[in-house]
Specification:
This protein has 278 residues and is α/β, with parallel strands linked by helices. It is 60% helix and 16% strand.
Length: 278
């Protein structure tokens, strides 16, 4: 059992809030975050980086310049001495676009070149043995995704996953992706589940749970909703650790696709409305 799980109910285990998932990430974990606003990205990435610095881990960031410029003042405000961490070799920041150009060939990642480039970076991140445990945050996969290069994006994700089976570090990637989009649920989340250990689908897990529960009750009725939830979650095998309410949405997609779409649409409306009201 992963260290971020509280308990199991109806076959699906309840996970910790996302901040604990990223702060307490262990070697071999491969976390994926879906975000739609810069602030959620900032909070998650900086929580992850700050925890790594505090834990004495070596940290590699594969970030766009825009996002690093947003992270740095937030880290400074949180008491993380970014300059000192960089000076002692604990924190290294790489330009995601420049790094991509070093191993992309013909619009796709070249596996041998990728292995050489990332192998050198990981070797240097240990800083001569000063940092045994490493964690990486990156958005190179998302850069390709945003360009519309879906095949290249997923190919690169696979290469990172294969690499992590060898080097056994903590990996965390963030995607500009809408968790309430039906196509994302139908195609992308199952695909991401093949090479990630944890999914962070939204920022507010409690609000997501309320939205999904209410949407299911409104769609099928309260009595049927209780029966469906229990049956679906007992049958569903989650591809990664995620909030129980997210597992319910994916279980609906797998077993009752005609119900999944209206529940997902209504969940979006309720989640957005509760955000506006808070």
């Amino acid at each position: 059992m992963h260290r971020d799980l509280d308990h199991e109910a109806n076959g699906v285990r309840e996970c910790e809030p996302w901040d604990r998932v990223v702060a307490d990430a262990a070697p071999g974990d491969h976390i994926v975050q879906l975000y739609q606003d810069q602030e959620f990205l900032n909070r998650a990435a900086c929580r992850y980086i700050g925890a790594g610095v505090a834990n004495g881990e070596g940290i590699m960031l594969f970030s766009t310049l825009t996002h690093w410029n947003a992270f740095r003042p937030r880290l400074d405000a949180a008491g993380v001495d970014v300059h000192a961490a960089q000076e002692r070799g604990q924190l290294t920041v790489f330009d995601a676009d420049e790094l991509l150009s070093r191993f992309m060939r013909g619009g796709m990642p070249d596996p041998p070149t990728f292995k050489d480039v990332l192998g050198d970076i990981i070797g240097q991140a240990h800083a001569g043995g000063r940092y045994q445990n490493l964690r990486a945050w990156g958005e190179m996969v998302n850069v390709l995704w945003e360009r519309g290069d879906v095949a290249a994006s997923m190919n690169l994700e696979d290469l990172f996953d294969q690499l992590n089976k060898i080097v056994h570090i903590v990996m965390f990637c963030s995607f500009l992706m809408d968790n309430f989009n039906g196509d994302v649920h139908e195609a992308m989340l199952p695909r991401l589940g093949t090479n990630h250990s944890h999914l962070i689908p939204v920022e507010d897990y409690a609000r997501l749970e309320r939205a999904v529960d209410d949407a299911l009750r409104e769609t099928v009725g309260p009595d049927e909703a209780r029966v469906l939830e229990s049956r679906l979650l007992s049958r569903y095998q989650p591809p990664f650790d995620m909030p129980r309410s997210e597992a319910l949405l994916l279980a609906l997609r797998q077993f009752l696709p005609t119900v999944a779409d209206p529940v997902l649409r209504r969940s979006r409306e309720l989640y957005s409305a509760s955000s506006a009201a808070s």
